[in-house]
From TrEMBL:
Pfam families: SURF1. This is SURF1-like protein. Its main location: membrane. Keywords: Cell membrane, Membrane, Transmembrane, Transmembrane helix. It comes from Streptomyces nigra. It is found in: Cell membrane; Membrane. Coiled coil: none annotated.
């Protein structure tokens, strides 16, 4: 009854099923790994945002690389802004998906070192984004700023190419080492996203806090792949049984016979 399984069609179908099962199982494990990674990142971000603010000098220094555990930590700094030497970061998107700039302003600490402060987003003056935009002035004099500590940006992490030949005072990536050369100063590693004091007139537009990554979606995908893997042999078995029943039914039907011609003898 099941000799048809040795036919070319069924051999190919069986081989495909045998390949699909481990592939789907592996995809399920990959999605589960992504789920665990995202959940761990969410836990790190939540812990960093909930931690008490600390002076920025406790977490970073000139040449320091901001670690994963330090990212998003709330820090404070005392000093003054230096708007005459600020730059803008190109091709940055606002909360409503408009393309413009981030404003990167040096903040001179009381000990003379410099902290890079991302003050927020502003629109471009034109579609070309070649002209230096009008930037709202930061608070003058000695103040205390608060922000979320961030690592230097890289092309590998952000996908943004660090183009050369840009207009004056425009950059593609926030890089404390490059800014240290440009400013000829001791610049702390990384930068902060300013959260306080809030800008007057809502400009620059503050950069929102990071949200949770949807780890549950990866968990659902993992279960889905494993269900698919379990469904492949079940589907194969159902198809084989149906094929066997159809062949058995065809074999049990009586064969049609040709009518026999009757000849009448001549008188």
């Amino acid at each position: 009854m099941y000799r048809f399984l040795l036919s070319r069609q069924w051999v190919i179908l069986t081989l495909i099923a045998l390949l699909l099962i481990p592939t789907m199982i592996e995809l399920g494990f990959w999605q589960m790994h992504r789920y665990e990674e995202r959940r761990a990142r969410n836990d790190l971000v939540a812990a960093a945002l909930e931690a008490k603010p600390v002076p920025v000098q406790r977490l970073t220094s000139p040449g320091h690389t901001v670690t994963t555990g330090q990212r998003y930590r709330t820090v404070t700094a005392v000093g003054r802004f230096d708007p005459d030497r600020e730059v803008v970061v190109r091709r940055r998107v606002s909360s409503d998906d408009k393309v413009g700039f981030h404003v990167l302003t040096p903040f001179v600490l009381t000990d003379g070192r410099v902290l890079l402060v991302n003050r927020g987003w502003i629109p471009a003056d034109g579609p070309s984004q070649t002209a230096f935009p009008k930037i709202p002035a930061p608070p003058a004099g000695r103040i205390t700023v608060t922000g979320r500590l961030m690592p230097d940006e890289t092309t590998e992490a952000s996908g943004i190419k660090n183009l050369e030949g840009l207009p004056e005072r425009q950059v593609m990536l926030i890089d404390s080492a490059r800014e240290a050369e440009r400013l000829d100063a001791r610049v702390l590693g990384g930068y902060i996203v300013q959260t306080a004091p809030e800008p007057k007139g809502d400009s620059p537009e503050p950069i929102g806090a990071p949200g949770d990554e949807n780890a549950a979606l990866n968990y659902a995908y993992a279960l889905q792949w494993w269900l698919f893997a379990a469904g492949v042999p079940l589907g194969w078995f159902i198809l084989a049984r149906r094929e066997a029943r159809e062949r058995a039914a065809d074999a049990s039907e009586p064969a049609e016979t040709d009518p026999v011609a009757v000849t009448t003898p001549a008188p």
